[in-house]
Predict the structure.
Amino acid sequence: MTFRCFILTSSLFIISAGSLTGQTPYLADATDSYLYRVFFTDKNASIWDFTREQLLSPAAISRREKYGIDTPDMDDLPVSEQYISAVIQHGLAFRCASKWMNTALFASSVPMDENVLMQLPFISRVQMVKHPADPAKGIYNKYGMTVAGNDGEAYDPRGPLNGTMLHLSGFTGKNVMIAVLDAGFYNADVIEALEPLRSRGGIVATHDFITGSGFVYGYHNHGTSVLSILAGQLPGIIAGTAPGADYMLLRTEDNTSEYPVEEDYWAAAAEYADSAGADIITSSLGYFTFDDPAMDYSFNDMDGNTTFVARAADKAASKGILVVSSAGNERNKEWIRIISPSDGDSVLCVGAIKQDLSISDFSSAGYSSDGQVKPDVVAPGTGLPIQFEQGVWYLGSGTSFSCPVISGLSASLMQAVPGASPAEIIDALHESSDRFNNPDTLYGYGVPDFVEALRILEDQYVYRPEVIMTAGPNPFFDEINLWFREPAGSLTITITGTNGNLIRQWHYPVYAAHSIRLDHLDIIGQGVYLLKVVTDEGERVFRMIRLRR
């Protein structure tokens, strides 16, 4: 029995669908000529048959508890191993399964009679999701456009969104995990823009859901371009939107063809991301037409509840993950409208604007077919500096590139207001956008202001003192929190001993938030310290006592 969509490693605790652990990693072979998605009627088990820890990783449990999500539920039960084995007995090879969707993917070297499987009482539907055909993807480019960059052309997409203010305040996505689902990360292991990310060990996991291997640094450079917008740092050229975040690089897109099977890989990767502790899924991918026109979706299917990938994306959102998806590059083509999974009810759909803040010609139009405001928001997506080759940078245009602008800056909001749920972050982005009271089919709610979104979230979660500032707890163990009546503006903090010796110092020329957490203070000894805080509003000195646990 072969196995590829989930792995079990020493560094990441991954729950494998169907509890099929310990299998040899899958490698593509000739049996992949025909691929079938099998829908099962039930899980053949009860929640009471498992402990919570048998079903979910510690990271997944922690996220659900943080947001008050009931754990576990029926989605968390594995696909029945008995059902999978019964299908294998009909001559099919198991490829992967989705516990959220209660499906499994099987391969065959020859076409099969789907009615044979439909005789099994626990199968509700069988769908062919790939077969041999002349690939259309080589002719049709859905990834956007790139041109060589030149001196003087570098553009910072954070500016129009007020995102630079968050970064100057130290909110760069630290302690946030972003899963990047894409077509490949060719050269991401060598390009200069990602050297700071690599050197600090910021790439925590890689997996290819098409081949089953851990190698993702080939196949296509689209994911590399996206990652350079998120985490890239080239002085004067690229300033990543989440340079402090950690990343999982997950290949779900087969760049040699376009078939619905890629939605199965997307779902498998989303479940992997959930288990491995992702806070954000960013996906600059989308589906609507395929190499076989008989498999195409219609615009009526873009209702957030029909396509396999949109339903999987909404499942991921229901687990406490912020799912961000590009709207598509179809407005100047025959399709015109948004593509899936950006139509998902709980998915943050991102369109693209030019540098003059007008809508990009290619940015797919909304609404969704059931009338949801889509795109949700827009961000710069024309002429963004990217890198995917050593020694060279390019200008990229597409909603593929506006999407990581939003997902990266959303990581800053997560860091700044860690109690805010993904749904609350989406609401705050809507409310902070310039067309919030008059959304339309091109801009959605418009261009978000991330500092205003921070204010909205702080109103819900951050204490506002009546005095200029306050600090606590006192005594403290490992960290001190500071709260400000007004945003600090400029902020300088020093911790000194009673003898005047400097222990720690922080300085922010601009600080946009109403609070700050000073952590990792367990390195200083037990005793009395002086905490001096200087803001635009004034200054105070707090006498703080540090105790050992």
Observations:
- Residues 17-130 form one domain.
- Confidence is low (pLDDT under 50) at residues 1-27.
- DSSP finds twelve helices and 23 strands in the chain.
- The chain has three domains: 17-130, 145-459, 469-546.
